[in-house]
Amino acid sequence: MNETHHELTATLWRWSGGANGGDWFFASINGAVGEALSATALMQRLESGRRAGFGSVKVTVCVGATEWRTSAFPSKDQGWMVPIKAAVRRAEGLFEGEAFTMTLAF
Fold first, then answer.
1. Is residue 84 within 8 Å of residue 28, measured between CB atoms?
2. In the chain, what is the straight-line distance between the N-terminal and C-terminal CA atoms, in Å?
3. Is 98 in a helix, a strand, or coil?
4. 27, 48, 65, 103: most buried by Cβ count inside 10 Å?
5. DSSP secondary structure string for all residues of 8-73
6. pTM to 2 decimals?
7. Rounded Cα distance, 65 and 16, in Å
């Protein structure tokens, strides 16, 4: 399957709590890229006959010079959410509430 690359501007936001506690940072994916993620999730479910964990879609993310593999997760409140790990935030100088450019491939 060929991956399609989508460039977008997102804002870093913090989610606190959960079973493990701690803070997690995410970028929300909406609009055309969010719709493409939804279509990809549906196609994967139709092809495999099952849903991926939490309805996620595996993605490759690039922010600045940093690239990594993770999953995008659907959210009723945020559209799709992509976790931005601490090493990426440090390497690329990202701060909560700041807009940044990212590329998603899926």
1. no
2. 9
3. coil
4. 27
5. EEEEEEEEE-STT-SEEEEEEE-HHHHHHHHHHHHHHHHHHSSPPGGG-EEEEEEETTEEEEEEEE
6. 0.85
7. 27
